[in-house]
Design goal:
By secondary structure, the protein is an alpha/beta fold. The protein has helices at about 10-25, 45-55, 70-75, 95-105, 125-135, 155-160, 175-185, 190-200, 200-210, 210-225, 230-265, 280-285, 290-325, 325-330, 340-345, 350-370, 375-385, and strands at about 35-40, 80-85, 115-120, 145-150, 165. It folds into three domains: about 5-165, P-loop containing nucleotide triphosphate hydrolases (Rossmann fold), CATH 3.40.50; about 175-210; about 230-385, no CATH class. InterPro entries: AAA+_ATPase (IPR003593), DNA_Rep/Repair_Clamp_Loader (IPR050238), P-loop_NTPase (IPR027417).
Length: about 375
């Protein structure tokens, strides 16, 4: 399987990048060195950036059905000439960007290019972006920058104007379903349902297809919303959302720390039960310090709540679809709850349904801004009660 085969629903973009990678050998000077990959969450922009990096680095341009050593290293994040900047913080710091710039000035060690990928460049504050600006405008002759963001509008104009923008489409349900069947081996019905519920978000679709409990939690959330009658119901549902998010975030954060500890031991030649030498103990303990764990749990719980907010919004999206007679054209996300959603569509007018989607968006922005999760969710769900 070539490096491009994991990219879902972006056929025209993949063909464009394949052509660029192939032609840069004969005309290296024409190669664009600053890129901005834009696509909504779950569209696969980070995967596309990784595939593009692998294609630039690998002698076979990532096309071989048997991936080269260079391709495997890029995909594993271990290639010395490919650097990734990702963060689970609210913003990307100046110090991290300055370190990247220093790296970008170094000659590649074994590959034709040094490739630097920055995920979520929209999390940079303006002063941080200004530090990066000169390097994006005039990259070192051997460096390719790949920036990723939800949309070009989420990035400062000074960066937009100095990059070549690649806009990704939202993958179709059919494309996501096919991908799930091929990559996870799930049956057609399970893959189709996961793709429908994920609404084009590849990562969430994989989650739904591989973890039945997450789908059950989603089903319970939709039923809880549709059955809300009074403020006490809304308060209880908000508490359930926060508790479930913290529980899942804790499990995920501890698992991630466990993987980092295992990698630390592997890199330093230590067995799973072997005592960590004194000179390495400080670095080892830093992996799982309380502040780091707390930060990871907070960030991960926000991700889980954001997914729940998308689920809530999908109910009112379905209401709007039914009210406008567009079910045949665009389909219903929550097919299992169609009867209750149809009933809700008769209780709300079109303006009220749209207003509820806007309320969910407002709650998302408040929570992303480190607002009080429980209070914000309580206020939101109370506002969604039908008079």
């Amino acid at each position: 399987m070539s490096v491009w085969d994991s990219i879902v629903g972006q056929e025209s973009t993949v063909e464009l990048l394949k052509h660029i990678v192939a032609s840069q050998e004969s005309d290296r000077d024409a190669m664009t060195q600053s890129w901005l990959f834009c696509g909504p969450p779950g569209s696969g922009r980070s995967n596309l950036a990784q595939a593009f990096a692998a294609a630039l680095i690998s002698p076979d341009h990532g096309l071989s059905s048997e991936p080269s050593r260079q391709t495997r290293e890029v995909l594993a994040g271990t290639h010395p000439d490919v650097t990734y900047l990702t963060t689970d913080k609210v913003t990307i710091g100046i110090k991290e960007v300055r370190e990247l710039i220093m790296t970008s000035e170094q000659m590649p060690s074994i590959a034709p290019w040094r490739v630097i990928v920055i995920e979520d460049v929209d999390r940079m504050l303006e002063r941080t972006t200004n530090v990066l600006l000169k390097e994006i405008e005039e990259p070192s002759v051997h460096t390719v920058w790949i920036l990723c963001a939800p949309s070009a509008q989420d990035v400062l104009p000074t960066i937009r104007s100095r990059t070549r923008i690649i806009n990704l489409a939202v993958p179709s349900n059919g494309a996501v379903s096919d991908f799930l069947q091929q990559s996870l081996g799930v049956d057609q019905h399970q893959a189709a349902r996961a793709a429908r519920l994920a609404q084009g978000h590849i990562g969430i679709a994989k989650l739904y297809a591989s973890q039945p409990q997450v789908v059950k939690d989603r089903d319970a959330l939709v039923v809880g919303l549709l059955e809300m009658k009074k403020a006490s119901d809304a308060v209880c549902l908000a508490g359930q959302i926060v508790d479930r998010a913290k529980e899942q975030a804790t499990v995920d954060a501890e698992a991630q720390i466990g993987r980092k500890e295992a990698e630390f031991r592997r890199v330093n030649g230590l067995g799973a039960d072997e005592k960590v030498p004194r000179q390495l103990l400080g670095a080892y303990r830093q992996i799982a310090n309380k502040d780091e764990l707390r930060r990871r749990i907070r960030r991960r719980s926000q991700d889980v709540i954001d997914r729940d907010l998308n689920t809530l919004a999908s109910v009112y999206r379905d209401v709007c679809v039914i009210q406008n007679g567009a079910e045949e054209q665009v389909g219903i996300v929550n097919l299992e709850n169609r009867a209750a959603i149809t009933e809700l569509s008769l209780m709300l007018n079109r303006q009220a349904a749209v207003a509820r989607i806007e309320q969910i968006g407002l709650a998302r922005r408040r929570i992303e801004g480190n607002g009080a999760q429980l209070l914000d969710l309580e206020a939101l769900l109370c506002s969604l009660l039908v008079p």
